[in-house]
Amino acid sequence: xxxxxxxxxxxxxxxxxxxxxxxxxxxxxxxxxxxxxxxxxxxxxxxxxxxxxxxxxxxxxxxxxxxxxxxxxxxxxxxxxxxxxxxxxxxxxxxxxxxxxxxxxxxxxxxxxxxxxxxxxxxxxxxxxxxxxxxxxxxxxxxxxxxxxxxxxxxxxxxxxxxxxxxxxxxxxxxxxxxxxxxxxxxxxxxxxxxxxxxxxxxxxxxxxxxxxxxxxxxxxxxxxxxxxxxxxxxxxxxxxxxxxxxxxxxxxxxxxxxxxxxxxxxxxxxxxxxxxxxxxxxxxxxxxxxxxxxxxxxxxxxxxxxxxxxxxxxxxxx
Length: 319
Known about the structure:
Blueprint: H1 6-15, H2 34-37, H3 40-55, E1 62-67, H4 73-81, E2 89-94, E3 105-108, E4 115-122, E5 131-136, E6 139-145, E7 151-156, H5 160-165, E8 174-177, H6 179-190, E9 192-201, E10 203-204, E11 216-219, E12 222-224, E13 233-235, E14 238-239, H7 240-245, E15 251-254, H8 255-261, H9 273-276, H10 278-295, E16 304-310
């Protein structure tokens, strides 16, 4: 029996009945994400939500939707920090299996039909399955995979997306065809009636695509081979230039740049505070360390923030 292409195997391994996410696995169990560092990411997101709120002239309700919410950490933090918006703020976590959420935060396994406010896709696009292909001789061929991860090459394929965004010419070169991600992002942005959509993820751009592709797996805090048996998270970097072109005008920054633009700085507390207020000084040192981790250009700070405003002038760099 022929094995499926990576796209089908990947989808089943994550979202099928016995898939990684369908069984309730949480990202926090397998790798470190920005919401797990501390509340500072939520503070930045709330600053952006305040800008959305102002641009929309204080709508009621004001939506905050966290797509691919994982353990619900970001949704819960935004809800807790957004006390000044209570009475109008409607927070929803979108995830296949309901995470532990505080009272007042809604959950849905489906995308909302309409959003008035801010929708964020934090490390969502990288988990959306793609077709994986490899250059073999002079032809691009689909990569097929067995449940134990053994790969084989299938029929030759042609792709307008590859021609436009990831041209291949060298034997052995691999790529992930990001057309499914582009379509998913365009669909999510279109659901925003007014406000903005924000994607936060790791990725690459034309001229610097990884030669061997970026498909990989994560399990229990370690990077592992991507075996499509439901035992690990399977992910691949996002072709951000292609995604950005899929949904109209947008703004693209690194996380390091975005956090600075939203007022999240990693300056340590004044040295004199240690004698005057030791606990305050310790808290300040801890915060500075967390922000430094979020802004580290070789780590989380190298993530990309793609903001697509809808029906309102909303920006990361201009309040």
